[in-house]
UniProtKB/TrEMBL annotation:
<comment type="similarity">
    <text>Belongs to the HypE family.</text>
</comment>
<dbReference type="InterPro" id="IPR016188">
    <property type="entry name" value="PurM-like_N"/>
</dbReference>
<dbReference type="InterPro" id="IPR036921">
    <property type="entry name" value="PurM-like_N_sf"/>
</dbReference>
<dbReference type="Pfam" id="PF00586">
    <property type="entry name" value="AIRS"/>
</dbReference>
<dbReference type="InterPro" id="IPR010918">
    <property type="entry name" value="PurM-like_C_dom"/>
</dbReference>
<feature type="domain" description="PurM-like N-terminal">
    <location>
        <begin position="62"/>
        <end position="173"/>
    </location>
</feature>
<dbReference type="GO" id="GO:0051604">
    <property type="term" value="P:protein maturation"/>
</dbReference>
<protein>
    <submittedName>
        <fullName>Putative hydrogenase maturation protein HypE</fullName>
    </submittedName>
</protein>
<feature type="domain" description="PurM-like C-terminal">
    <location>
        <begin position="185"/>
        <end position="331"/>
    </location>
</feature>
<dbReference type="Pfam" id="PF02769">
    <property type="entry name" value="AIRS_C"/>
</dbReference>
<dbReference type="InterPro" id="IPR011854">
    <property type="entry name" value="HypE"/>
</dbReference>
<dbReference type="InterPro" id="IPR036676">
    <property type="entry name" value="PurM-like_C_sf"/>
</dbReference>
Length: 359
């Protein structure tokens, strides 16, 4: 195990930690409602959808597909409240751009334009906001999208953690592309584009002053170029998903339930870097539930798996792509993992988030 120690700069204040998996019958909003797991789903299903009534339309994916004048558009919106606002490998600025670009791209769309809305806390230095704004601009340029509209608001000191950002994005889905969770089917190969759990551990190490023998940097990146390379192979891509809040486990469970299929993983095949493995081992975290911000999952027809893998590995953001499992007809709606000892364990949908405020 690598040299794991508390930073001399900061000690872990256990009294400040908030349990992300509280009792499910709480009458008030708790951190677990924002974790992307079962509690988030219950909040949407039992509070928001009934309140919206007939106005609610579409599915519950990270992006919606709508037709306008015969053109299919993918539309997504997301809010970013990561703490701290800067971290190894990125900041809330590039995270906001990359997160929405990726949500649009997971529908197979080509992201085109974004909106940006900043909620600023009174007393935050202009230099800090300028750094975040510059990160937004740089990330948009790298992703090839334009920032076309936005908004700015200021809240009282002590109520905003410096800055929160909302981004919305629109992209065009080309003819013949049909990528959605419901298309997962038995026999599909499950591919991940690279190492998992990196972003969540990077935020944890920065936030709590922990060191894991090496600096773990967030994997935040725009994946639309990688998706374009995968589509260009002509392969039958059934599902794409970026496993952010709730990690790989949450995304696979959502897909399995949407399609009514089972997913079987091989733990030995999971690409977990040593720093992430050591951190999770010390803190009792499961890497499958730790957030990512620059990785994707792909469900692909087995006949196309080799060429999709080759295309992914030719892209810098998919160089460590690997097959981690398959879709099965057994145990529909459930994800299981084959352990290194030959056993099998259920990988359930998390109730909340192991580490809140990671995006």
């Amino acid at each position: 195990m690598s040299d794991l120690k508390l930073s001399e700069r900061a000690a872990v204040d256990m009294d400040s930690w908030v349990c992300p998996v509280p009792l499910r019958d709480s009458p008030n909003i708790v951190m677990g409602h924002g974790g992307g797991g079962a509690m988030s789903g219950e909040l949407v299903e039992h509070l928001f959808l009934p309140a919206f009534g007939a106005s609610a339309a579409g599915g519950l994916s990270d992006s919606a597909v709508v037709s306008v004048g015969g053109i299919r558009l993918a539309f997504s919106t997301d809010s970013f409240v990561v703490k701290p606002m800067t971290f190894p490998g990125g900041s809330i600025g590039d995270l906001a751009v990359n997160g929405t670009v990726n949500d649009v791209a997971m529908s197979g769309a080509r992201p085109l334009v974004l909106s940006t809305a900043f909620i600023l806390e009174e007393g935050t230095t202009l230099a800090s906001i300028a750094h975040v704004a510059e990160a937004v601009g740089a990330a948009a340029q790298i992703a090839g999208v334009r920032l076309v509209t936005g908004d700015t608001k200021v809240v009282d000191s002590g109520h905003g953690d410096g800055v929160y950002i909302n981004t919305s994005g629109i992209g065009i889905i080309d003819e013949g592309v049909d990528i959605r969770p419901e298309r997962a089917r038995p026999g599909d190969v499950v591919i991940v584009s690279g190492d998992i759990g990196v972003h969540g551990v990077a935020i944890l190490s920065c936030r709590e002053g922990l060191e894991f023998g090496t600096t773990i940097r967030s994997d935040t990146a725009a994946l639309n170029g990688l998706v374009a390379d995968m589509i260009a192979t002509g392969a039958d891509l059934h599902v794409l998903r970026d496993p952010t809040r709730g990690g790989v486990a949450a995304s696979l469970n959502e897909i399995a339930r949407s399609a009514g299929v089972g997913v079987s993983l091989s733990e030995r095949a999971l690409p977990i870097p040593p720093g992430v493995r050591d951190a999770c081992g010390l803190l009792g975290l499961d890497p499958l539930y730790v957030a990512n911000e620059g990785k994707l999952l792909a469900f692909v027809d087995p006949a196309d798996a080799d060429r999709v893998l080759a295309a992914m590995r030719d892209n810098p953001l998919g160089g460590n792509a690997s097959i981690i499992g398959e879709v099965v007809a057994e145990h529909p709606g459930m994800v299981v993992a084959k352990t290194g000892l030959g056993g099998t364990r259920v990988v359930d949908l998390p109730a909340g988030e192991q580490l809140p405020r990671i995006c």
